[in-house]
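Rotation project, supervised by the postdoc (A.L.). Task for the rotation student: set up a whole-complex structure prediction and record inputs and outputs verbatim in this book. Inputs entered:
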Amino acid sequence: MKDANKTNPPRLAKKIFRWFASEAWHDEILGDLEEQYSDYLHQHKKWLADLIFYYETILFLRPHIIKKRTKTRKVMLTRNNIKISYRNLVKNKTYSLINILGLALGLTTCLLIYLYVNYDTSYDDFQDENTYRMWINRVYPEREVNYPFVPHSFGPQLVEDFPEIEAQGRCFKPFNPTTVKVGDNYYIENNLIFADSTFLTILDFEMIQGNRETALNDPNSVVINQATANKLFGTESALGKSIEFSGSSKKVSGVVADYPANSHFSFDYLTAMHQLPFFNQINWVGFSAMTYLRLSDGTNPISLENKFPAFVKKYAEGPIQKRNGISYDEYIKSGNGYNYHLQKVKDIHLKSNLENELKANGNLNYIYIFSAIAIFILIIACINFMNLSTAKSTERGKEVGIRKVLGSEKKQLVSQFLTESIILTLISMIIALVATYLLLPEFANLAERPLSIIQLINPASITAMILIVLVTGLLAGLYPAIFISSFKPLAVLKGKFKNSKTGSNLRNGLVVLQFAISIALISATMIVFSQMDYLLNKPIGFNKENVIVIENINEIATNQDISRFETFKTEINKLPNIISSGYTSNMPGDQVADFVARVPGTDQKESMIMRRMIFDDQIQQTLDIKLLDGRFFSRNFNDSLSIIMNRSAIEKLGLTNPIGRKIQEINANNEPIEYTIVGVVDDFHFQSLHVDLKPAAFTYLNGPNGFISKMAVKIDGSDQGAIQQLENTWNNFVAGTPFKSYYLKTNMEQFYKAEKATGKIFGVFTFLAILIACIGLLGLSAFIINQRVKEIGVRKVLGASIFQLLTLLSKDFVKLIAISAVISIPASYLLMSRWLENFAYSIEINWSVFVIAGLAAITIGITVVCLQTVKAAISNPIDSLRDE
Amino acid sequence: MEKDSISSQEEVILLLVGNLQPNAYAYTLKNELKEQLNRNVSLASIHTILYRMEKHGFLKSSMGGVSSSRGGRSKRLYQLTSKGFTVVAEIRLVRNNLWDGISPNQFLTSF
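Outputs recorded:
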């Protein structure tokens, strides 16, 4: 045996040759090759002879030797194939419909998700590659914050100090809306941005009128976008027109095309930053301006970043030392840090999550999750397609048998079935495109993104769609094609079907996969919704119901006449339906300023950063904040140097008997202000529940640095008339600035807008996935029942009841669904706990969610199976048994 | 005459077939090419040439001659046809005429 092996040429080479060479040549050429081989064996080592044998064999790849493939192989989509496919589609209308609709549904979902993902990943695609934005990771001993703002003196100094930075541009957006007057019309504008004169050249702006280099040079110039120009001036040219900004008049020096929605940046008005005195002062410490840098070609941003610490120390050391009273190094050593970084403008939307962005950031995780869902749904749809086609194939067994008897080759049959599946996929794709077009407005609304079908019209997307059709068609058609074409003609014509073990294992595996995905989606949707419910209804420490907030309250004090606040309030309180009203600097949900406090007498270094809001004496009752100790601000006391703290602040400061204790406020001027604690309130959530409760301090409105910007009004019941009455009172006091107000509750719900949209999208996809899985189950149960139709007949004859038959037939499916539940529940538990980690306050995942999801899947499954089974179970056994 | 023109490689194969008859098949041809002309040609190229020459009618073939070293496979034995003979003979005639036109002295003086 060993000897024989030794003298025999490699079998693989011969196999290859037989595969490609036409039969007529086999004998003589293999003979020559082997003869040569046996000669070589005498002269060379075996491995060399083998190698030569391979080499010589491969050289026979010549046109006249290669097998002639039959014509059917060359042109798969022959006219006959298409004709037969059409006849089959029409003959099995229900099956074709279910099959096409199922696949179309899957493809539609994929297209919608593709549009969503494509939009989110297209943010700032148009910006210059070399433009970066600075951001800071500010580390405090007890917390960290990431801001997109850096001190405004950094930008120009960086350009001066580092040759690799070509240019810089800064901008700043004030928190409060601005009132704008053109002619006799007033507008309240939320999107006014103060920007450097270089700003129009740093980010990508499309100038319609004006010169981008000079438009923002004059402090009294303003650049507006096209929409604003149309709003303010109609069809007239806006250039050179003047706009009144709370007292000062500015000339329009440029009009810019509306900024693309898929950018982190947006604006209505751009005006020169250097008109604000603050930005002309040196500032190395306070985070004040978004700073964009253009790096020269080939600059490595990381190595530039590495030079920042030295830069920060050089310039900020002095001011930091002055403010904190300890040396810069000591300050850093005590756990503080200013870590400045660069980020590509394109990365801002998806790859960063900084506080106080101009627009809410996207979440890369959702992009991944949605892409995964799209792929899963497409897989489910393909699986269905395969199952349905296979199920249908048993009915075509006779056709296949006859074709085989008449001399059809296996590959002809395969090509027939592949043609059919590709045609079905193509029809599905066309339906899916139409459906996407029709559903897109609704979906865009749900996803809160301006999605458009035009995103699909580009070479990459079109190629992708064609590929999807071909790949899906091939994948979905290949299994049934091979399965059906391997029928033994004799057995098939006799009426027996091959029911291979591997085939049924594969199909069962596919059902398990489908239902695992469906159960995971059902439980994920339920968890998302219950978390939303929790967020919206969690006790937040104050009462947000029936509170109307009036903005721009400063306008009341015409000519700085502060006494008007008092009269306004008295007027408001006189109105019917008004329970109480109070002035404040910020309302829950707003940005809140920092407040650095320390307890005098303790170590000078121990200062703590908390949030500060300024209240009047009636805020507590207006917002229903719970007082734990001491008293609230009151007119009966001089409260200008009184302070109230929340419970976390008192706990973090470690005060056991807080009332009457002194608190020092440390500010940039290094002149500590001393307050006395007069009260302690319970913690309340003045920010979204994504973030933890923060220590907070509240000072009285006539105290140092006191200012107010809003008024909260508590009404009884959500009476629409109340807003009208408030507006009337406002108009009696203020001329010019229009009345602006919002419901506190509505505003707080905005925090969870992104989650709400995600939840809805999740719900839709879950519904689709379940629907598609049901279609699959329908096909599969039809297939299995078809195979067992004789068994059912015999059982019926022997006296089985319909119920017994139903149990018998659904038992297997319930088993499969139970297996899917076992697989998917741990997976979705892990995934959803990770999602819930996004929130500082979240629900516990309740096991009942999974029980419900599993039961739902089983119920849906049984229903679908029963629909099919009942038909088989009530049919007359004679029909199924007579043709033996 | 144009379509019957053949390459020198083909000419050599035809001549070798004539020499090796009745034992002319791909592998013996390959060995002869190596021995007489010191040319290494793959079996595949020889097959291709033989195939082409047979198609032109310069060669004819028959199956035969099983041997154990070939794994018990028969070989395709080639024979020169009269048409094939004419082709190589014509080439020889042309060559001879051309040779006659060259005087060795002429060649030498040109140095």
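Student's summary: The first strand of chain A starts at residue 131 and ends at 139.
Supervisor addendum: The two ends of chain A are 52 Å apart (CA to CA).
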